Each structure stands twice: as structure tokens, then as C-alpha cells.
Prior knowledge:
Elements: E1 5-9, H1 15-25, E2 30-33, H2 43-46, E3 56-59, E4 62-65, H3 67-77, H4 91-114, H5 132-144, H6 156-171, H7 178-188, H8 191-210
Parallel strand pairs: 1-2
Antiparallel strand pairs: 1-3, 3-4
Helix pairs in contact: 1-3, 1-6, 1-8, 3-6, 4-5, 4-6, 6-7
Amino acid sequence: MTEELVLYTNPMSRGRIARWMMEEIGQPYRAEIVGFGAPMKSADYKAINPMGKVPALVHRGTVVTECAAICAYMADAFPQAGLAPPVDSRLRGTYYRWLFFTAGPVEAAVSNKAFGLEVPPDRARAIGYGTYADTMDTLEQAVSEGEHILGDRFSAADVYVGSQILWGLQFGTIEKRPAFEAYGARLSARPAAKRAAEIDNALMAEMQKAG
């Protein structure tokens, strides 16, 4: 069975998160750029991801979709990169907590904000994230207790949490709080983050030029 890592992505998508993770891991991989519209909804691609969305990762015959899952999977598949605490570490719970808090409540809260959807105050307890304000306050706490989610140790959780914060700051779905801006600036300065951005920005420029 092939050991090849194949990332299906598009530079104008959440695939940028997965690209950053691949660069942090430092293993050879092949990127397949999937266009929006017909290519992404084609039978061939939907055989990989029935949602017809990117990113998707194929490794050892296993398909992994969803950015948080890709980050967690890659950290465990390549432990030599040191991007996840050991299973028996007390930090493992913190790592999972903020990785999946961001994939769940934060993603839902910022998506609703982006589309102008507000949960009635009397129904807040019925939705996973409660209120947007509570979600932002909790996210701020997560990034304010150290340089990274795990204190002084960078991990795959930072790739995902940091990507969501940087994206939200850029598009106005996450408030420009000093803690968010400082955290985002620290992560953006990482060599792997810079490499990933350069690759995807160059691809995006080519795609825009073509058409």
C-alpha cells in the first residue's frame, strides 16, 4: 500500500489550513488542486469526499476530511514532528479541548456571524456555542495562557485554532482583540506558515490570471 501523502485542495479554501499542517510535518506530499464547481462535484472527486469539498487527505489508502481531523491525524501519523502531546500526557486533554472547541463552537459562531444569523437570547442555551460573545471570550482565554495553546509548545492545535483566528480577523468574523492579533502574528511568523502561504498565494495568482 502506498505511503504517499496526497492533499486535495484549493488555494482559495480551507485547504490552506491543511497545506500549513503539511508544511509543519515536513514530509513529502503531492498536492492535487481541485477547481470549484464541476471539478469539485465530479463523481471522481466525490468518490474521495462525498461532500464535494476540499481539503481531503489520502494516506495509506485512508481518506481524511475536515481540517481539524487532518491536523490531528497528521500529528499522530508523524509523531517525530512533535506536533501533538503523547497520549498519556496531561496536555492531551487541553490539546483536544481547544482543537475541537474551535472546530465546533467557534466555527459555528463565526459562520453564523458571517451570514448575519443571530440566535434569539432566550434560545442561546439550545445551541452548541451559546452566544457569539461567550465563544469569543472563551477563545481569548485559550490563546492568552501562553505563547501557544499548550503554553510554550507549538502543536497541531495551533495550526487549526490559529488559522481560524487569522481568517476571522481578515474577514471581520472574529473581533480584533489584542490577544487574537498577537497570537496570529506569532503563528504567521513561523517558517512553515510562510511557506504554505507563499505556495497557495502563488497558485491563487496563477488561477486568477488564467481566468
